[in-house]
Amino acid sequence: MVRRSFLAAPALLLAGVLAMKFGWKGNDDLGWGLALPLWTVAHLLYAVGYLAFGLVLCSLWSRARKAASGPLDRSGVGIVSVVGGAGLVAMLGQMVIDLVVGFRAPDRAGMSAISKSIHDIPGFGLFYGFVPALSFVAATLLIAFLAVHRRIPVWPAAVFAVGSFCIGTGATALMVGGGLALCAALPALAPHVESVNRATAAV
């Protein structure tokens, strides 16, 4: 399950980006009968991808906690992981909100009004903006921590960091490139994470 999450998470998130950026946003003239399924499929891909990414975060937290050399390190790992979990919850909440908006809207034009009414609810702004990005920030820090402690190779850690930054820009070309980078980096990390988990279980 853990190994599959390292493979599935980046692939599903990249598929979501492609569906959203080139299906939904790139075709304003599509009828609602096609536009709504594209919106829905893109967000379902995102949601399942982020659920898989949650398993990745849990695995990274477990590995980093074992690599920690003292209470200060363990506290830092714990705080970063909690922040990452909060970002993940916010992102999943965003997907649910967007799906609800899509199903309630009669057409593209109607989405804006419904979305604004939801965003005006106090506290709902946390599901957008910087907070959801914290999941990638936390994963980057945990992977960097593992690389510094020589528990994983440096190259996938560097590729993941660059990919996460590219995704965070929101620019279509960079997001696609970032998604491809994650597709290369995370599978390369999976065997290392699982091998340590198996060794720990044996002990």
List keywords for this structure.
single chain, 203 residues, mainly alpha, 7 helices, 84% helix, globular, disordered C terminus
Number of helices: 7
Largest sheet: none
Strand content: under 5%
Question: Helical proportion?
Answer: over 70%
Stretches with pLDDT under 50, minimum 5 residues: 192-203
What is the total tally of β strands? 0
What's the order of the H and E elements? Answer: HHHHHHH
Class based on secondary structure composition and strand pairing? mainly alpha
Radius of gyration: 18 Å
Shape: globular
Report how far apart the termini are: 21 Å
What integer is the average pLDDT?
A: 90
Summarize the structure.
This protein is an all-alpha fold and 203 residues long. It has seven helices and no strands. The longest helix has 36 residues, at 32-67.
Notes on the protein architecture:
The chain has about 200 residues and is mainly α. About 85% of the residues lie in helices and about 0% in strands. It has seven helices and no strands. α2 runs antiparallel to α3 (about 70-105) and α6 packs antiparallel against α7 (about 170-200). It starts with a helix and ends with a helix.
Helices and strands in order:
Layout: H1 2-24, H2 32-67, H3 71-104, H4 108-119, H5 130-148, H6 154-169, H7 172-202
